[in-house]
Amino acid sequence: MNTEKLRVGVIGVGSLGQWHARIYSELEDTELVVRVHDSGPGIDPAQLETIFDPFSTTRSEGLGMGLAIARRLMELHHGRIEAANSPGGGALFTLRFPAPAGDESEPEKTP
Predict the structure, then answer these.
(1) Which residues 6+ apart lie within 8 Å of 16 measured at CB?
(2) Which residue range(s) make up the domain with 77?
(3) Per the structure, how many domains does the chain have?
(4) What is d(CA 73, CA 47) in angstroms, rounded to the nearest whole number?
(5) pLDDT at 2 > cutoff 60
(6) Does any domain span residue 40?
(7) Could you tell me the CATH number of the domain that includes residue 43?
(8) Of 19, 77, 80, 97, which has the fewest Cβ atoms less than 10 A away?
(9) How many Cα atoms sit within 13 Å of 31 on the Cβ side?
(10) Residue 9, class by beta-carbon neighbours within 10 Å (0-12 exposed, 13-18 middle, 19+ buried)?
(11) Residue 58 domain-assigned?
(12) Phi, psi angle pair for 74, to nearest 5°
């Protein structure tokens, strides 16, 4: 398996002004780990416990289903998603996927 790290930068503009997000991926032990770190205000510490619960939202126009759906999709793929505040500021989401087993030098053929 290719163990090179992938780094992607994203710049956007929203209601809070300009923001930056960085996406990193790497192979750690038996997992493919993808980290998304933004430059926003971070996550309210009181909300960290319930951020993946259905209907948990701080937005007036939101339903609070996005992260609940993301968590369920990760579980269906035998992975997990975690949320935290980065020590330097901003939110940090970590997605952990089980790494494929065996030699991945050849693409998998589908019938």
Answers:
(1) 40, 41
(2) 6-98
(3) 1
(4) 21
(5) no
(6) yes
(7) 3.30.565.10
(8) 77
(9) 14
(10) exposed
(11) yes
(12) -60, -45
Assess whether pLDDT exceeds 50 at residue 28: yes
Give the Cα separation of 13 and 17 in Å (integer).
5
Q: Which residue has the higher pLDDT, 104 or 22?
A: 22
Looking at the domain assignment, is residue 1 inside a domain? Answer: no
- Check: CB of residue 47 under 8 Å from CB of residue 56: yes
First to last CA, the chain: 23
Answer whether residue 50 is part of any domain: yes
Contact assessment for residue 21 and residue 74, using Cβ atoms and an 8 Å cutoff: no
Cα 96 from Cα 107, distance rounded (Å):
21
